[in-house]
Structure formats: structure tokens, C-alpha cells
Protein 1
Amino acid sequence: MSNRIFGLLLAASILLCVGAPLMIAWAPYESTMGLVQKIFYFHVPSWMIMFLSVFICGVASMFVIFRRSYRADRIALAAAELAVVFGLIGLVTGPLWARKAWGVWWQWDARLTSALVLWTIFIAYLLLRRYGGPGSERLSAAVALFGMANVPFVYWSVNVWRTVHPKTTVVPSLGPGMREAFWWCAGAFLCVYLLFLVLRIRLEEKRLELESLYLTSEDQYKNYG
Amino acid sequence: MTLLDFDCVTLSNVSHAYGRRYALKQVSLTCKSGEILGVFGPNGAGKSTFLTLLSTLLDPSSGEIRYGEVAPGVPGAALRARIGLLGHDLHLYPELSARENLEFFARLYGVNDLYQTVDSALKRSGIVDRGHEPISKFSRGMRQRVAIERALMHRPRLVLLDEPFTGLDDVAMRSLSVRLRELRLDGVIIVIATHDLDFSAGFIDRAAILKSGKLVTIETAANKLRSSYEAHIYGGA
Amino acid sequence: MLKAPESHLSTPGFFRVVCLMVMKDLAVETRSKEIVYTTIFFAVSCMLVFAFGFVQEGREIDHVAAGILWVTVTFAGTLALGRTFERERQNETLRAILIAPVDRPAIYVGKFVVLLVLMAAVEVIVVPLVSLMFQVPIFEHSILLVLLLITGTAGFLAVGTLFAAMLVRVKSRGVLLPVVLYPMTIPVIIAGVRGTALLFQPEADLAMAQAWIGMLVFFDTVFITLALWVFEPLMKE
């Protein structure tokens, strides 16, 4: 990962994150919900990033399974962790909004529920990696791949399941002045995500380097000790 | 169906790591046809990993294994048809009878003269009259004899045995060693991982001694095997 | 230099291997009957627990029958999956099959078919029991109900067989199987429960139930294909 790209990402993230509160403050109030609606600028981008991360993890996992690529494995792990993190942001902001807007924490909203299911799939990925012992990289890659393939099914089934009950959607449509703020925030989230992804991949690379050094030194110690 | 064949198996700098730990480090070795190679070492030395790598069920983390001139990647199934493996757990279904076990595996391998092969396997393992009883009723030694025949039914070129003498009485051990010598005359490559130094010294051609995943020495003189083993394993070489 | 051996093997094709695996597993299961009995008993106990949980003063809370049915099938299925592969692991027979020169995906299909048969046996007991305990009609739209059960169970097992097979060497496999399986099969559960509930209600919504069956067929196709694709590289240790 080139240092220049890293520097660029860092600069972009700072710029966008500093600008975001300003953009949000400047955006007009939504007619019915007032200030509460502004949580939307965090909520929806987090979901978008979670789906992006799921996709990246799924694709990287294909390389892990078929090409045995270590590089792809590091990317898959970082992407899975970030999918869980950004999913968590979405899962926390959603109920906060719902509580303020409709007085109930959880409404079994179709999109929220689908995201929750996808989120649990990737928690399972992390649990398998952690507790599956050596060689669990490929096994969890299968989970990620299946998880990615499952996205349309989860979405469709939860959606149809929900239409039987009265629907209250958490995401209203975007008014005119809000569009700029929304895309600014989406951009900010994207830059932050890519920054974290690069950082996490680097961290994993360093960790593996450390482990192999550890192995070699252990080896030498045994020879001389 | 054309059969793959090879007259030697070569390991070049083969290492295998399980996560943080190296089970086998930089092992280089050639096994030739018509040779019985004994693999010795304390527990955790890497003997089982060595056999599993040779069986193609495991890929080395680094280094290469060649079968004749062929690397294992490409002709997967054709290569596996020429390998026979007998692990510590015998690979038999306890609910099925000896005959059913042998017939299942013979069919899986596609052995041509099925009933003939199964009959002679049963005869060799000395279980003809009890061939219809479920294997769970047999002693460990009897099951071992059936298991050995199962591994040899498809006439493999490379035979890998993990602790084949466990649970065998003297008679059975002797007949197994005779069987292995017969196979050697047919040009089969035999690799045995075992703890039993003294008995094996009697019929193996070479001994590879492993310690902590490393190949410390290859011994060819039978009378020097015990002393060599003790020097390398306990002498702290 | 050795002569190239005459071919004494005719390796069986894909469907032959599937048949061999299925016949073998059915033979093993009919002898011991362990998995069938314990799974059926477990399913019935599960239903009893739910009945006590959800039935108050002899009246069921509306529409729980479908949910109870599918949760029971899920739990029983997980048990059957775990037990089937545990049995292969105990005698290392899975290893012996993997080293045979067979098409690896055929192993997956063989296991899948056997588990489907096993779960069918369980459902034959559980579904009438549901009808008895919760007074729901099972004969009115029996064809659709059967289709729903088949496609739903197949979807669950398509993913489950792969995951159970790949977890066979993992230490915490008992708990990790449900952990990875349940979130993945939520669409199947939703479709199964909703479809069944629609068939159980007084004015059954046949069109919607058919839509759920359609989704399940699609799910099954996609995931069986994925599993076949991924099975071989995952089975290498």
C-alpha cells in the first residue's frame, strides 16, 4: 500500500470529516421530524459502507478459497471487521432514530432487519476465525462468500415478510437541500472506511511478519539453547 | 483408464506450518521404488504430518513434493488411485461387516475384479469365516488386519502406514512384515511411521529420524539404528 | 524402470460415487439406527417444550404452529448434521474417502441426499404431531406443504452439509456449526414459516405460498451450486 495513497486518504478523510458537521448544520430541517432526522446522515452511509465491505470481503474470500492468496485473506479479514463496525453504527443509529420518531426502539423494519441478519453472518465469520483454530481462514472465507450470495435472499424474504405487517419506513426521501449534505457525508464515510481498511490490512501484515520472526527466533533458540 | 505410475517420490525443502507452529521444516528426501522407509521420532516430531503430505491430503506450506516427474497439483484423482493410506484410526465403518467395508472401498476405487479381490483380502486378513460380522465385534488386532488389506486392495504404488504395528500380536506383526517385503519385491514404495525401532530395524531399508519437524538423519545400517536414534533424539544434537 | 501397469481400476463416475455413498450411509444407519432414533426423539421433545411454552390453558397462541415446526426441523437438522460428520471423523473414514480417486463434490451430494432422507423420516413424525397438538390442517393443501418442506429442508441442508463437512476437524465444531449455519439460513426459515403459516390458516393463501416455494427453489439452486464449487478446495486440510 503506497504511502502516497495513504496520505491522500488521510487528507481527504480529514477534509470531509471536518466539513461534515458544517454541511449537516447547513442542511434544512425535514418538515415532520425536525432535528432528529439528521441522524439519517450517519445512518444511511453506514449501511452503504457495510454493504460495500461485505462485497469486498466476499470477493476477497473467493481468492482466498481458490487461489490460496494470503493477501486476499488480509483484505477479507479487514473488510469483515469493518463490516461489523459500520453495521454496528447503523444498528445503533437506527433504533435511536426510531425511538425519537415513533417512540419504539425496534420496529422490524425491512431494511434494518436485513442488515441485522447480514451483520450476524459476519459476526459468525469473526467468531469462526477466532475460535476455529489453524486453517480457519479458508473456512471463514466460505462463510463470507455464502454471506455475500445471501444478500438478495435475505433482503427479499425479510421485505416480503414485513409487507404483511403495517410498514413504517425509517428512511424518508431526500429533500432538495439535503442531497448535498448527504453525499458529502457519504463521501466522508467512504474515505474513513478506506483509511481504516488500509490501516487494518497493514496492521495484519505487520502482525504476520512478527509471527514469522517469532517462529524463526524460536527455531534458532532451540538450536543453540 | 490409463494409470499414472512413478518410481520415486521426492521431497524438496518441504515445510508445513499449522498457524504459528511448524510441524515440518525443510525436509528433503527421496523414496525409491522397492524400498521400505521407516520414519521415526518422538511424539510431535512431524511423522503424521509427513505421511499426510505424501498422501496429497495436505499441501506443503513451502517446498515441493514430486511423484516421479509429476507434481501433485494436476492429476489429483489419478495420483490418489496409486496411493494407499492406513492411519491410526483404521478407516473402517464399525457398523458394517469386514466384507461390506472391503466391498465399499473396492467399489469406490473401481477395482475391476471386485469379488476376487475382496475374497483374497479377506483370506489374507484371516477373517473369512467371520466376514459377515460387524467390525465392532472384532479385536483391535483383527480390525487392523482388515484395515491393512483395505489399504492394499487397489494395488497402490505408494503405501503409507501410520503406526501399523499397534495392537498386533507377534504372529500378526511377523505376517505384516512378510507382506511388506512381498510388496517391496513388486516395486512398491513403502513408508512406515512407527515407534517400534527394534522390530522395524529387521526389515526396513532406510530410517529417517525426525525431531521437532526437522529431518536430523537418515540411517541405513540396521544395527546402528537404535544407537543413532538415541544419539540424535536424546543426545541433543 | 518399471512397466506401466495394466489398468486394474475403472474409477467410478460422479453418480456412481453418489450412489455408493448413499447406499453405504443408509446401510450404516439401518444397522445402528442411532441418528434416526435420537433425532426423532429430540424433535418430539423439542415440540413438547414449545407446546408448554406457547400453549396457555389449552389454547394455542395464534399462528405458532408453523414457527414451532420449522424451529424444530432446524434444531433436529443441526443435530443430525453434527452427528453424521462426527461419526465419519471418529474412525477417520472421511479421510479414507477423500484419498480415494473420486470426484470430491460427489461426497457432498452423497451426504446431502442421506441427510435429506433422514430429515424426511423426522418430518414424517413431526408434521402429524404438529397437526395433533395445534389443530392445524395438514391434508388440505398437502402437495404444497410437502413441496415447502422438501425445498426448505433441502435449502437448510445444502448449506449445512457443506459447513458441517468443513468444520469436521475444528475443535469447537459443536458450537460453531449453529453459529455459522443459523444466520445463513434465515431466508429459508422465513420462507418455510411464512409459507406453512399461509397453508395452515383457514383461508389459505396459495399464491403466496407458491411464491415462497419459488424463492426456496431459487435459494436451493444457488447454494447447492456454490457448495459444489467450493467443496473441493475447502476439503484440503
Note: DSSP finds six helices and no strands in chain A.
Protein 2
Amino acid sequence: MPPNPLMRRKREQIVREHMDSENRHEFGATLATFHHPRYELVGTREVHDGPEEVMAYFEETRRAFPDQRNELLALHHADAAVLVEAVVRGTHTGPLGNLPPTGRSFELPILAVFVFDDDKLVCERVYFDTITTLRQLGLARDPLSLGGQLQTLVGHPWAIGRGMVRRATGR
Amino acid sequence: MTDREQLVRDHVELENAGDYTAVIKTFERPRYEYVATDEVYDGPEEVLDHFEELHRAFPDQLIEVMDLHSADEAILIEAVARGTHTGPFRGLPPTGKRFEQPFLGIFVFEDDGLVCERVYYDTATVLQQLGIARDPLSLTGGIELLASHPLTIGRGLVRRVIGR
């Protein structure tokens, strides 16, 4: 059933507080916007479930990008979710996994599905492109550009070689 | 099911059937926007060319809708596209590999006319599955990264050592 105006207002308030508190770096407040804290990052197939894992995830990303912030572009109310188009920006001044800081900035469009059970936020599922960020940090090239194609050939001779044989033999 | 939801379901089914002329007719004004790559295909000719390019590269591609969200000005689908890379794609010869790509499609409506499909997806996912990219945070990906981007990584290491 479509959410009534009251429910919409309540959900929108939760989503806005969630995103604003992230920008204020008040991650305790962000965590509190969840009834059950859970992140699903679709591109990387990462799941962070429960308060400890979600807090660790906040801490890891902010170690890598201490100035990370979001800007909400559009908000869509659906029956069981609020879907947000947003841009995330940040500067890579701390370690990210094994990668040392590059000092570069990124700007990443995302789509976040805030999943609601009634008026309770139970999951944030995020769609985004990992290469968009890596390219801006100077850690990846567009594989379809000339430089990217050369790199692909150098780094993946097997896959490309098999493909060329297949093309030549028509199979 | 509302008219808009039916239209979106029809759109996906016709795409799976490879009936691209009919897919284009589900639009009031045909337009695709790919957020990750900044690609835009606008108007019937560009959209048809785009479908044909994808069909040449991945002739068996099928889309499965996992979840459909109905909002005021848009229908949003969470879906998975699956296919096999058996044709050339922008200079890349066919790898023969299969991919499975989750994506989110926003079908934007003006009144009851579909005017745009905007797609969010991770370009690395399909490239990794086709065997032409590695996860840069994995060990082999990290080694490859070091080999192909020595300056960036080198600068980063220096910055870490000197603490700036």
C-alpha cells in the first residue's frame, strides 16, 4: 500500500537526518536512524550487518576519506522504500584497504535504497560505480579508452588472446 | 498494477524478446542515461543503435526484475542483467564469458509518458566477470595496479612514509 502523507514525512525525516548526520560526522546519530543497522553495497557485494559492523564501516571509509560528504539530488517515495539519488564527494587522504592515500578528490553519483518496514529503517542498499571513484583517484583507467585498452592487453593477455582467436576462427 | 507499472514490465519483457522497435514505442521520448559512464542516448535512432550494439556483444542478455518501486514521478526497478559475451564490444573481442550484473533503473515519467531510463550500475562488476579487470583491493589486483600505476602508488607510499 502506498505510504500516507504522515508516513512519508516520518520516513523522509529519518532519511534526511541519516544523511545530514553523516555530513556532521555524528555517526552515532546516523546509526540511531536505523531500527536495524545494515548496509548492502551492490557493486562490491559487501554487506555490513548489525551496529558493530556498520560502525566499523563508517570508521574505515572516513579513515580513507575524512572529508567525505553527500548531497541529496532527488528523493523518491515508494511503498516499502525511499530511494535517493545523491552525489558523494571526498578526498583520499588516508589508507583505503592496502592502498596508501593518493591525495586526490572524487565525486561519485549514487543511488541509495532506504528500505523501510513501516516507519523503521532496516537497510540501506547502495548502487554505485567503483571505477568512477578509482579513476578519479588515478587508480584505474576507462577500459574502453586507448590507455585502458593497452593496460587491459598488458594485464590480461590470456582473456584478450582467447577472444582474438575466437574472433579469427569465427567461434 | 498501475498503467505505469505495466508499461515498465512490458518494456523489460520486450527487451528480453529482442523486439527493440517495440521497446522504443514504450517511450514517449526515447532516452537512456548511464550514470557511471556519462553515456546518453537520446532519440529513437541513438537508442536503437545502442540496443543493437548491446545485442551484438551479448545476444542472449536477459533482465530479471527483482523489485519494483512505484514513486510519484518514476518507477524504479532493482534488477539483474545476465548474458554471455559472444560478440565484439567497442574494440574488445568476445571473451565467451558470462556476466551477472545487478543494476537499478529509474524510469522517469512525465504525466503517463516514459521520457527516460536512467541506469545505475557498477562497471567493474561486468569487466571482472569477463576477465578483463581485477578488483584493485585484492592481492593480484593490487600487484597489477602497482605495475600499471607506479607513479600514483609511489606518491601515495611516499606520503604515507613522511606522514603528509
Note: The first strand of chain A starts at residue 38 and ends at 41.
